[in-house]
Amino acid sequence: MTLLLEVKDMTMQFGGLTAVSNFNLRLNKGEIVGLIGPNGAGKTTCFNVITGEYIPTKGQIVFYISENVNGQIVSKEIDITRSRPDQITKLGIARTFQNIRLFKNLSVLENVLIANHLNVKSNFLTAAFKFPAYQREEREMREKSLELLKELGLEKFKNEKSSSLPYGLQRRLEIARALATQPKLLLLDEPAAGMNPQESIELMNLINQIKEKFDLTIFMIEHHMPVIMGVCERILVLDYGITIAEGTPKEIQNNQKVIDAYLGVETIA
Ligand SMILES: Nc1ncnc2c1ncn2[C@@H]1O[C@H](COP(=O)(O)OP(=O)(O)O)[C@@H](O)[C@H]1O
Ligand SMILES: [Mg+2]
Questions:
Q1: What dihedral do alpha carbons 186, 80, 52, 92 form, nearest 10°?
Q2: Which of 139, 163, 180 is the last residue before a domain boundary?
Q3: pLDDT of 121-174, one tens digit each?
């Protein structure tokens, strides 16, 4: 097993409120790990800390990248605790948002193209002076974006305004945008929210499919139990910012603490 991301003893406070306490996570390459818990438990805050939106009050976030040094693969440890979101994206961590954040008035293809721009080598000067190189990059980006749309089953909507897509497809487009930055680690914040059972099943297949195709590691927050239990190998449970359980889907389903804090309530609701 190769370690990809480590969150060490992370605490995030907002004023007097402790949103997350002493959170620990070790993600291995190729894993799909779930994060569940009641609303307000601190799940999205964990994502915001990992992606550099917030600097944690305490603790450390380490991302491990493999580099080819003179033909040898060397693992390098990068402390991203204080890195900016754009730097973290460039290192290979991408996310989707609980509240969909698409450019509503742009087309499906344009939404992916914009995300793709993050990875372009040309800066403004090369764009102005080395026009052919810039044009070639533009063309390549367009091709790559179209390929992504195809992979996610969105190609036929490429010229539609993103806001005109049904909700489930907008969530897919969010995933396409995240993939456009060529991540190694993908964080999904409630990807099945608002989806009907059929769409949820398709989403599960999609998650497995992109994981294989793009060689991803996935860390996901989700309330739909069939989705989280169906795709995750391992699940962490947060309650009031505290990790109350960690284990396989089966262990989590049978954990009394989890049933009391979360699953019991879900079943009633
Ligand atoms: N930027 C912020 N400022 C103040 N409080 C916040 C902020 N972000 C999150 N919180 C609070 O932290 C707690 C955890 O929120 P969140 O991580 O969004 O929970 P979850 O995603 O599990 O529903 C909540 O009480 C929320 O109100
Ligand atoms: Mg949330």
A1: -30
A2: 180
A3: 445 555 555 667 777 878 888 999 999 999 999 999 999 999 999 988 999 999
For the whole model, what pTM was predicted? Answer: 0.91
82 plus 5 within the same structural domain:
yes
- The set of residues, in sequence order, having a beta carbon less than 8 Å from that of 190 and lying 6+ positions away, is 98, 221, 222, 223
The response to whether residue 21 sits with its C-beta less than 6 Å from ligand 1 reads no
By residue range, what is the domain housing residue 176?
Answer: 102-180
Nearest listed ligand to the Cα of residue 35 = 1
Q: Whose C-alpha lies nearest to ligand 1, atom 7?
A: 14
End-to-end Cα separation, the chain, in angstroms: 39
Nearest atom (ligand 1) to Cα of 37: 22
Point out the ligand nearest to the CA of residue 188. Answer: 2
Q: Coil, helix or strand for 109?
A: helix
